[in-house]
Amino acid sequence: MKEVDSINTQIDHVKGRVENALALAKNLGADNAEVALSRQQGLSVNTRMGEVENVEFTNDGALGITVYKDGRKGSASTADLSEEALNNAVKAAVDIAKYTSVDDCSGLADKDRLAMTPVELELYHPKALTTEEAIDIAKQCEDAALASDARITNSDGATLASFEGFKVYGNSHGQLVGYPSTRHSLSCVSIASDGDDMQRDYAYTVNRDFAQLDAPELVGQQAASEVISRLHAEKISTQKVPVMFRADIANTIFGHFIAAISGGNLYRKSSFLLDALGQPIFPEHLTISERPHLTKALASSSFDAEGVETVDREIISQGQLETYLLTSYSARKLGLQTTGHAGGIHNWLVTANGGDFDAMLKQLGTGLLVTELMGQGVNVVTGDYSRGAAGFWVENGKIAYPVSEITIAGKLQDMFKGIVSIGKDTDMRGSIRTGSLLIEEMQIAGN
């Protein structure tokens, strides 16, 4: 394939530049060094009400180098990838290292943990798109939304984005690895009005492979359906009720869990899950598995940002916490081993014990279905949770009417243990694959 040959040639060229930077760092007296370089190019177009609002071409890159000398660390970066700029960045990092404090926990990841020969994960699926083709797809998407219902009176537009690029990482342990990847997405934001009420909502599709994106018409129709369903939202009274988070936002609950078991918060003692390893955090029915090597997946990677090999692991087994999420630095601070999570997680799969979306509503019975969250009222130190929300009031397992201007609150500790069910309506569009999430009871502040 011509595109694959071209990108691999670029990667090989960049690997040579990385080798030169590492050699220069050594010649300047660094004990060890690591270099990460990324490049990205692509196209993004935005249409609104049938007109082209924006066309943006991207072709950029960045290099970061970190050197270690006598327990001291120096870092520098540059967006200019010329030979002179790279040399200047290396010299700057070495110079900075002379003035930083000694830290015995800093340094490269242990050599035996590195991915010297990464596995192929099929993350590169380039799509040759002309500007005209991209504009046409975005217009198809927005037109479908506008034609769906007479109450769709306006639009914040449709956006098509298609990017390809690569990452290369090398260090003085002899590791020099890289891989290409692509990411394509299409989104649409619709505005509906009926009488004096106006609402706004969106829909999107994203994939490594352009051919696996949802059809433009489908995305537009979904955006229209979402916003129409929100018209004439009502307020509800303050009460405690079961709460169900729809699949597309259920991942936010696990996002707070990620923060609580991340090494940086743990060694700083700023997490409500200190010393929780081996303890029950969730109900026994819940298991979270990490699978970094799923082909084409959005969060797949053979190695983390430190070059550490990623491996399959169980995060939660029958409700029990099996591992923290550690970088080399945080692992050393805690007296543990890195888990290969520098840069984030890699494809979390949350087991489902419930049915499809309709079955989950029936299990909810009477309570709140949350489809949107607002604000940042989460304290990872104490577990306090309080966020603005919107969604639907559900009665007897059926959606009754939309609701807005409410706040949901609780303690993350109680929310985790109060998860009654995870649905089979899994959202595949992110790093956490989960279905709708039903919590036994939460406090709702309304009228």
UniProtKB/TrEMBL annotation:
Domain Metalloprotease TldD/E N-terminal: 33-97
GO terms (BP aspect): proteolysis
Underlying gene: pmbA
Regions that span the bilayer: none
Annotated GO MF terms: metallopeptidase activity
GO cellular component: a single term: cytosol
UniProt entry keywords in alphabetical sequence: Hydrolase, Metalloprotease, Protease
Recorded superkingdom: Bacteria
Family: Belongs to the peptidase U62 family.
Record protein name field: Metalloprotease PmbA
Species of origin: Thalassotalea euphylliae
Metalloprotease TldD/E C-terminal domain ranges (all copies): 238-446
Positions of the Metalloprotease TldD/E central domain: 124-231
Biological classification of the source: Bacteria, Pseudomonadati, Pseudomonadota, Gammaproteobacteria, Alteromonadales
PANTHER family on file: METALLOPROTEASE PMBA
